């Protein structure tokens, strides 16, 4: 028997295709959030660790105390002035300090009304900070020697991450995580998608030893040995040579909170099956995080140069 | 409705020498106000002098001549107003006195 679902779906897709703001996305049936950063931060804010009952910020773990406030950036650069974003003038900029190993993190906090497929889409770009006469590390860095096209700035970018913090029904907490590692810790290009095989350290673990991890530790999974490549194929992205050109990339990532697993990751013309990627759960059960549905993006520099992750826009949709 | 955004630029950070906050890009904002909460100030006659700085590119900086510098000599909260800035802001801090040590919490409150 014919149902109304198919024509309704056709109409829905036609409406999305006809909307210049939405047609660059591929949302699942229900859109939970559509964040065009030209109109504000839309709830993306700095992540920090937890503080005590006295409001004493000294009690925040040192490795989670300095993830930097996101900025609404018009992508201004020293050479051309305002570059601007894709959908408007402003993008969300997540910026590290110029300290090797430093990470900046922006988080968005929701909850789940049901279990099901969740999709995160964004148009993003990533850059290292432009050099000045004073801050320059020279014309050679990592694998790059400046030749008029290739620029050392590209080798000064470490990694960016899209990730979640999820908790459901029985207090089971886990993170689905995907990281683009541009360079390794020796500043050599790897250009791989990688994932962690351990859950993040939590404030409770470090409660009596807040300096257990240093401020430049990789907070998602501190031990480099706890990361695995999704596959052996590097993905070349469009850094576009110098630190002052901004090309926007499409990213679409799906996971399933029924099965607590990843589904797939699409970045431009590449779709990666993530169904076999293990998603470690915490051994402890969590109270107070019922239906937690947090998304975060982070950027980590592997050089003493500020690294930036820019999001033009983001769309979160679900199949429930 | 106007846009408003508060950023925490330093969080319980301790300094023993002059410093500047990380660059903050805010071309969308028409007004800004720094709030500096000095949590501890130690040394011999210590003082913390705060000056708002502006920049066209986040790389090269000058003092904002239109805003008034603040000198703080004891723990507490002070603020500095900045208006009609270029698109980047930071705060420059000079530590004075013998073996000075300052612990600060620094907010930047922005409004369109």
Describe the structure.
The complex is a heterodimer of chains A (320) and B (112). By secondary structure, chain A is mainly beta. In chain A, 4% of the residues lie in helices and 37% in strands. The longest helix of chain A is centred in the first third of the chain and has 14 residues, at 5-18. The mean pLDDT of chain A is 95. Chain B contains no helices and eight strands. In chain B, strands 1, 2, 3, 4, 5, 6, 7 and 8 form an eight-stranded antiparallel sheet that branches. Chain B has strands spanning 4-15, 19-20, 24-25, 31-55, 62-63, 70-72, 76-83, 88-111. Chain B has 112 residues and is mainly β. Chain B starts with a strand and ends with a strand. The A-B interface holds A 40-41, 46, 48, 57-58, 60, 65-66, 68-69, 71-74, 76-78, 81-82, 89-90, 93, 95, 97, 129-130, 132, 135 and B 3, 5, 7-9, 11-12, 22-28, 56-60, 87-88, 105.
Name its key features.
heterodimer, A: about 325 residues, mainly beta, 8-stranded antiparallel beta sheet, about 35% strand, B: about 110 residues
Order of helices and strands of chain B: EEEEEEEE
What is the global morphology of chain A?
Answer: globular
Global shape of chain B: globular
Count of DSSP helices of chain A?
1
**Low-confidence spans of chain B:** none
Structural class of chain B: mainly beta
Oligomeric description of these chains = heterodimer
Residue share in helices of chain B?
Answer: under 10%
Summarize the main sheet of chain B: 8 strands, antiparallel
User: Secondary-structure element sequence of chain A?
Assistant: HEEEEEEEEEEEEEEEEEEEE
Distance between the termini of chain A: 23 Å
Total beta strands of chain B: 8
Tell me the fraction of residues in β-strands of chain B, as a range.
Answer: over 45%
- List the uncertain runs of chain A: none
> What's the average pLDDT of chain A?
95
State the total count of DSSP E strands of chain A: 20
Q: Roughly what percent helix of chain A? A: under 10%
């Amino acid at each position: 028997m014919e149902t109304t679902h198919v024509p309704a779906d056709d109409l829905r897709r036609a409406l999305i295709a006809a909307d210049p703001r939405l047609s660059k996305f591929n949302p699942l049936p229900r859109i939970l959030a559509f964040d065009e950063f030209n109109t504000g931060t839309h709830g993306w804010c700095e992540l920090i660790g937890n503080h005590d009952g006295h409001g004493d910020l000294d009690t925040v773990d040192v490795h989670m105390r300095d993830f930097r406030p996101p900025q609404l950036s018009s992508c201004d650069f020293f050479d051309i002035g305002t570059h601007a974003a894709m959908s408007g003038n402003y993008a969300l900029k997540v910026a590290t300090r110029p300290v090797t190993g430093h990470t900046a993190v922006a988080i968005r906090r929701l909850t789940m009304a049901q279990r099901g497929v969740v999709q995160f889409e964004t148009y993003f770009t990533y850059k290292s900070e432009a050099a000045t006469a004073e801050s320059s590390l020279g014309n050679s860095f990592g694998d790059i020697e400046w030749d008029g096209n290739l620029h050392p700035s590209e080798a000064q970018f470490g990694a960016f991450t899209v990730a979640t913090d999820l908790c459901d029904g029985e207090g089971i907490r886990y993170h689905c995580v995907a990281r683009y590692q541009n360079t390794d810790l020796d500043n050599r290009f790897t250009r791989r998608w990688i994932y962690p095989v351990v859950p993040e350290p939590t404030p409770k673990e470090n409660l009596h030893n807040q300096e257990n991890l240093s401020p430049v530790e990789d907070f998602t999974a501190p031990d480099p040995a706890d990361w695995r490549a999704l596959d052996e194929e590097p993905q070349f992205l469009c850094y576009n040579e110098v630190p002052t050109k901004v090309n926007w990339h499409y990213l679409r990532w799906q996971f399933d909170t029924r099965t607590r697993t990843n589904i797939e990751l699409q970045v431009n013309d590449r779709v990666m099956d993530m169904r076999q990627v293990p998603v470690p759960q915490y051994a402890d059960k969590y109270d107070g995080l019922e239906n937690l549905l947090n998304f975060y993006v982070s950027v980590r520099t592997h050089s003493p140069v500020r690294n930036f992750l820019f999001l033009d826009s983001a769309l979160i949709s679900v199949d429930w | 409705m106007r846009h408003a955004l508060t950023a925490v630029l330093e969080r319980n950070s301790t300094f023993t020498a002059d410093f500047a906050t990380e660059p903050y890009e805010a071309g969308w904002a028409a007004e800004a106000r720094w709030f500096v909460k000095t949590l501890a100030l130690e040394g011999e006659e210590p003082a913390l002098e705060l000056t708002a700085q502006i920049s066209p590119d986040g790389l090269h900086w000058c003092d904002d001549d239109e805003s008034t510098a603040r000198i703080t000599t004891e723990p507490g909260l002070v603020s500095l107003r900045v208006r009609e800035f270029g698109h980047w802001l930071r705060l420059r801090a000079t530590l004075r006195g013998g073996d000075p040590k300052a612990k600060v919490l620094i907010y930047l409150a922005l409004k369109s």
